[in-house]
Amino acid sequence: MRNIRSFGPDQGADPFRVSEAMLPLDNYAGRGGYDPGFIGHGTPLPLPGAGIWADDLVELLPEAQVPGHDPTELKYTHFSLRMSRSRALPLFSACNIDGAQLLRGIRRTDIWRRDPRIDAALQNLREGYGQENRGLFSRGHMTRREDPNWGDQATAEQADADTFHITNVAPQRQGFNGGIWLDLENYVLNNTDRENMRVTVVTGPVLGRDDPVYYNRQIPAAFWKIIAFTHAVTGELTVIGYLRTQLEYLPRPSAARFVFGDFQDMQVPVSALAQETGLDLSAYADFDVMAGATGIEVRLTTLGDLYLQR
Question: Could you write out the DSSP letters of every residue in 76-95?
Fold first, then answer.
């Protein structure tokens, strides 16, 4: 087994719940990652395509690559992600959720660390993160902490710890990470076919050239989700797209390309998300409840405003 690798002088956790110590590379053996066929219906939902980011993807270090596996896919327990090299942030994190096997009582790992499988210099563990009353940002989970925590106890605990890798993070203001954004996946689970309580969630930041700069880093002005599930009434594979801005939570006024008016939450076509993110989301678009809609958005004030079928 390899020795623990470090990046910086501190070898343990600090009061801000951060550890400079990286787990041994062998610890990641056997991570299955995201399963494209998880929901069923005979229609796999692959990870989003790289799109305009094809030349910007972070690759696993040579010693971490597995023959025959995509070197740009970082696999964890029940979720996978791809990262942008230029932004040192995830482009997306895609998670399979088995609602029938969720273990909600898993103790929170609460220690952030880097992943030894990719370049440590591309993993910002500290800069710009900290106490909100100092204007700093939270480490916002992309795959939510509880989502992959299903299966037996050991698997769920491993999944929880996996979500605390800094690769699964984008900077968010604390006030942003709540409301509809927080409750969306639970709402969909509650409206899913009880015989197939399986949901796939893909979450990421919208990364743009004109994103505002704080603490020497560009901060995403908005975040998106795609949720795929078996509809409780129709029994069909169903996809919804969702967009949320954090502009009103940023520490000081900043220009940005999004104009949301009084609404920070919107349901939008997957095709619109593809345009905003530059990712290839075509595998999801055909099952979108808003497929074919052009220039249409649904402004959300409550979860009940969501369209869950065409």
Answer: -SSEEEEEETTTTEEEEEEE
pTM of the predicted model as reported, rounded to 2 decimal places: 0.90
Interacting residues of 195 by C-beta distance below 8 A, sequence separation 6+: none
Indicate the domain borders of the chain.
34-305
The vertex-216 CA angle with 212 and 222, nearest 5°, equals: 30
* Run means of pLDDT, 10 residues per run, the chain, 310 residues: 33 64 95 96 94 98 96 98 98 95 91 97 94 86 94 97 98 82 83 82 95 91 94 90 86 43 77 96 95 80 84
CATH number for region 34-305: 3.40.570.10
CA distance 27 to 239: 34
Measured distance CA(97)–CA(94) in Å, rounded = 10
Which is it for strands 213-214 and 138-141: parallel, antiparallel or unpaired?
unpaired
Residue 200: which of 33, 31, 83 has the closest Cα? Answer: 33
Question: Which residues pair with residue 205 across a beta bridge?
Answer: 223
pLDDT in tens, 165-223: 999 999 998 778 777 888 888 888 777 777 778 999 999 999 999 898 988 899 999 99
Other C-beta atoms closer than 10 Å to the C-beta of 106 total: 18
User: Which letter, b or e, does each residue of 247-276 get, where b requires 16 or more Cβ atoms within 10 Å of its Cβ?
Assistant: beebeeeeebeeebeeebbbbbbbbbbbeb
A 10 A CB-CB count for 301 gives 11
